[in-house]
Amino acid sequence: MAVLAGRLKLDDTRNAPRIPAHPLGTAGWAYIQPVQDIQARMMEVNAGFNSRSEMVLRSGL
Length: 61
Description:
Number of strands: 0
Distance between the termini: 27 Å
């Protein structure tokens, strides 16, 4: 954790922990109102507030 936080510098980085190339997401919540939830997500993407990738990460897929 200290290496990832930048507080500890290693001379030999071959044994350093690998950082995942993609963000880790959590499990999504069940839909309460599926039609409205999906329409709202589509509107967010169309308005440019979020990307499609962000919407997939939020859904936990």
